[in-house]
Amino acid sequence: MVVPASGFYRPASLRLEHGRTDPMARYTDWLDVGALAREVLNPVGPGGSATYLPVLWDLERDRAARARPQPMPADGVLLVPGALLQGVGLAFDVVVHLRVGPAARRRLTAPEQAWELPAFDRYDDEVDPVVLADAVVLADHPDRPALVLAGRFS
Q1: Domain segments of the chain: what residues?
Q2: pLDDT digit string (tens) for 55-111?
C-alpha cells in the first residue's frame, strides 16, 4: 500500500498562511503530522485497527478528500513517500532516505520550486536525515542511484 504524505498536507489557509513561497512554512507548516500518525501509522501499527485512511486532504480542490478507510492486509507493507518526514515524531519501522546533496538539489530543482531549497537545507542541518535513516540512497544522479549506507538491511 502506498500512502503519499502529500495527502496529509494541511489546508491552503494554514499551509500558505505566510505566502505561497515561504521556505520556512514549507519546512514546518505543510504536513499535518498528527493526522498522518492518527489516520495511517497508528492504525497499521501494533495494536491498531489495521484500517488506514489513504488520503485526508485533496490539494487540488483544497477540501477534505472524503476517502474511505482501507483495510491493511495482514502481510501488507505500507510505503509513505514524502519530503521532510524524519525528525517530526512519526514512527516508521524502516526509513529509506533518498539523499540529494545541496549542489545536485539546486541543479535538479525546477526554477518555480527553487523557493523550497532553504527548507531542505534547514532539514539537512537540523534533522540530519542520513543519520536517522535505516538505508540511504544517494540520488544526485537519479539515473544512477547508489546505496551508500545500509542499516538493518545489511
Answers
A1: 1-81, 94-154
A2: 999 999 999 999 999 999 989 999 999 999 999 999 999 999 999 999 999 999 999
For every residue of the chain, DSSP letters joined together read -B--GGGGBPPHHHHTTT-TT-HHHHHHTSB-HHHHIIIIIHHHSTTS-SEE-S-SEETTTTEE--PPPEEPPTT---B---SS-TTSS---S--EEEE--HHHHHHHS-GGGGGGHHHHHHHHHHH-HHHH-SEEEE-SSTTS-EEEEESTT-
| Cα dihedral: 22, 58, 86, 146 (round 10) | -100
* 63 φψ region: left (φ > 0), alpha (ψ -120 to 50), beta (else): beta
CA atoms 98, 30, 28, 104: torsion sign: positive
Task: Using alpha carbons, select from 92, 106, 98 the residue that is nearest to residue 129.
Answer: 98
Q: Are the CB atoms for 80 and 94 separated by under 8 Å?
A: no
